[in-house]
Amino acid sequence: MTKNKAIMIGAGLANMAAAVYLIQEGKWKGSQITFYSLDDHGSNDGSTASEAADEYWNKTHPLENSKGFIARGGRMLNYRTYVDLMDLLSRIPSATEQGMTAAEDTRDFDAKHRTFDKARLMEGGKGIINGGKLGLNNKDRMKLTELILMPDSKEEKLDNVTIADYFKDDPHMFTTNFWYMWETTFAFRVQSSAQELRRYMHQMIYEFTQIEHLVGVNRTRYNQFESIMLPLINYLNDQGVKIVLNRRVTNFEFKNTPMQDEITVTALRMTNTETGEEEDVPVDEDTAVIFTNGSITDSATLGDFNTPAPENMDYGAAASLWKKATNRFYNLGNPDKFFNDRNASEWVSFTLTTKDHTLLNEITRITTQVPGNALNSFISTSPITPMGNKDVNMSIVVHHQPHFTTQKPNESVIWGYFLYPRRTGEFVDKQYIKMTGKEMVEELIGQLSKVDPGPGNIMDKKQEIMDSVINNIPSYMPYASALFNNRAKTDRPKVIPEHSTNLAFTGEFVEQPYQMVFTEQSAVRSGEIAAYHFAGVPMAKLVKNPRYDKDVKTLAKATRKMFE
After folding, report:
1. What confidence score (pLDDT) does residue 507 get?
2. Is 90 exceeded by the pLDDT of residue 213?
3. What is the 3-class SS of 175-242, one letter each residue?
4. How far is CA 177 from CA 131, 140, 357, 558, in A?
5. Are 318 and 340 in contact (CB under 8 A)?
6. Tens digits of per-residue pLDDT, 389-408?
7. Average pLDDT of 486-490?
């Protein structure tokens, strides 16, 4: 149903993509589009710590140390699969590279800084281990093959089936190098959805053959706010789009109809988070409402060098609004599956800023590779999983430097995360979630010391490294993996739900055929679909998505790899 105006709830990647497509494909004017949002970056953030300290999520817990940089997470890109993202970036200018589109900027940088990780897995007492040896047995191969060959029409067999359930008769899977790499590359847990694992195996099957080096991974020149979000913000501002920040939309008003099944938004209630004032925004019949119905960084908090990130029990701004809509209509999914099980979704990350390259040089020595090529995981040698298997303690990403445009030449920025934040550190006797930034650095140095072949163990430079730290900022994210939570297909709404006249859903908590969540690709695709629908653009014009799971050569390579 075509419209001529749009209100966007949430100013993350999905809705910004929708706005670009409305302008360029729908031929709308920017003045026809208004955003209401808490912030202008969604989960693609990246800033100085002082800027982050002013954001809404940390106002009740001010930082003692607001020096350094913060990015709560980062997304790996993959040109072969992320075709909608690259189409979007090809439509807007780079924010940092004059004369380039944002896509050309990323391709130019990536061509000059190819990913080839020589230290993908490291284990205490062994150092770098050969991740190319996947360690699969015949039962593992059989179960993975069943997933890879499962047709789309049979996917519902995996409704409400966890990865642990799927491999319940094959616990060996969770002791393999394949699992350690897959788990830390994509942030799956054993209690995550087997449906989502299947989709990744289908869409990323070519990555299966090169996962030990991550050669298929592409990266942006800077953090993803400056390389992806800022170009979008600049473009939309230039087009006259209105972006209203510090607004939390708290409720919908819907049209009353005899059957009470027509989904038509007639007004929005929102709170100005700066003033506390309530506002009502009417929605007329010519206006589309495009709503990002969940965020993996909702309710996130920050700590600092001497303070752990506090735990925020808020259900989440976007998810709370989504839940109110599901109380009215039966076909809009089930947000509790994603936002009511923190045990399956929470992580803690940290962003470490140093005033010199002492730590960076030590990591380069230990991993035998320069910054920008590595996603390194450290494997414990002691049983720490419920199944008594060893598992990954922590992961770090060593970016190409600088990672921020305002970063000084002598400064280093390193990011890391704990996928299971309730586990206890080996070098700091605390749960990761309770550690200060300082204690996380100590844990990192300890983990590196386990895999350091020497001579001159990194522990010899511990004090020098600690003295170099400007700040280390922990971030607690209760919903970081919520999009992987165990669920059925009906637990996520479609982009355009049945009976909806003016409401669309976008982002990582919508159901799209074949798409993998937790990717810039699926977010952009959802915004593209919503824009085409309301602008009357034929869906045949959507960017064509490849299906590598149908490619015989790719499948043959994956089969050979299973036996290494």
Report:
1. 97
2. no
3. HCHHHHHHHHHHCCCCCEEHHHHHHHHHHCHHHHHCCCCCCCCECCCCCHHHHHHHHHHHHHHHCCCE
4. 6, 12, 31, 15
5. no
6. 688 889 999 999 999 999 99
7. 96
Q: Which helix (H) or strand (E) holds 140?
A: helix 138-149
Q: Which residue has the higher pLDDT, 148 or 462?
A: 462
**200 assigned to active site:** yes
> Which of 21, 36, 200, 420 does the annotation list as catalytic?
200
Confidence of residue 56 (pLDDT cuts 50, 70, 90): very low
- Alpha carbon distance 342, 331 (integer Å): 24
Which two tokens mark 212?
A: 């030990």
pLDDT of residue 226: 97
Distance from C-alpha of 115 to C-alpha of 401, rounded to nearest angstrom? 14
Q: What is the Cα Rg of the chain in Å?
A: 23
Mean pLDDT confidence for 46-71: 74
Cβ 357 vs Cβ 475: under 8 Å: no
Contact 128, 162 (CB under 8 A): no
Quote the CA–CA distance of 51 and 63 in Å, as a whole number: 11
Quote the Cα angle for 371-417-460, to 5°. 60
Could you tell me if residue 507 is left (phi over 0), alpha (psi between -120 and 50 degrees) or otherwise beta? left
CA–CA gap between residue 63 and residue 70 (Å, rounded): 12
What pLDDT is stored for residue 525 in this prediction? 98
Phi-psi region of 27 (alpha: psi -120 to 50; beta: other; left: phi over 0): left
pTM passes above 0.90:
yes
CA nearest neighbour of 515 among 152, 215, 13: 152
On the 0-12 / 13-18 / 19+ scale of CB atoms within 10 A, 343 is exposed
Residues whose CB falls within 8 Å of the CB of residue 378, separated by 6 or more in sequence, listed in order: 122, 123, 124, 392, 393, 394, 395, 396, 447, 448, 450, 451
For the record, the structure tokens of 250 come out as 């708290």
DSSP state of 162: B
Reading the block at residue 394, the tokens are 């922590």
Pairing of strands 247-254, 392-398: unpaired
Which of 165, 173, 170 is CA-nearest to residue 191?
A: 165
Pair type for strands 242-244 and 33-36: parallel
Adjacent-strand bridge partners of 290: 8, 504
**Mean of all residue pLDDT scores within the chain:** 92
